[in-house]
Fold this protein.
Amino acid sequence: MSSTDSTLTLTPLEQKFALKDRVYIALKEAITDMDIYSSAQPPRLDERMLGEKLGVSRTPVREALSRLEQEGLIQMVPRRGAFVVRKTKAEILEMIYAWAALEGMAARLATVNASDEELRELRKFMQPYGGSEEARAHIDEYSETNIRFHQNIIRLSKSKLLMELTQNLFVHMRSIRARTIKERDRASQSVIDHSRIIRALESRQTETAEKLVRDHAINLAQHVQKYVSYLD
């Protein structure tokens, strides 16, 4: 297993939380931003290096890693260190189906709870990628936009519980979406799907919005099932 600490993006810690909480938040955000499936081995987290990057001792780092292990995001291996957990193909499929149900309900709630202005902002957010050519030409930027689009749907539900339930799922959903959006021209279909979803949300078509979002995630599961071999 190789060390990939260099892939972590860590920023100065905010002062409004206790140190151990700030370290935990920083590490969790950094792990969320990682491409977990970019290599054959799970990313390794070195306590000493993490402490140096954050400007803290190893004690709050250990506490944060222990908390992340309890959440199932990392695994502590004796005499080897901490590793970000990579899910199997079966586990990823299970997570995608769970996400489909949760995000579908979030879309349903968004048609009721989101303001007209918030839904217009969602359209503006996707506007730079109004066509599949723009998405393909700027695939890395579109990949990040795609991920944030789905985060926004959860946020627009205005459901605190849904946001909490999807938080840990999102770590792996983000990573698998980032990989698969570049496969088999999925970006083009993504643009089409997003446009349909936005229209349904704006027109407050509750049933349609829920179905479109759920089907969008199920299509991801079907792609993973059929074409993704790097999770086996």
Remarks:
- Strands lie at 44-45, 74-77, 81-84.
- Residues 1-6 have pLDDT under 50 and may be disordered.
- The first strand starts at residue 44 and ends at 45.
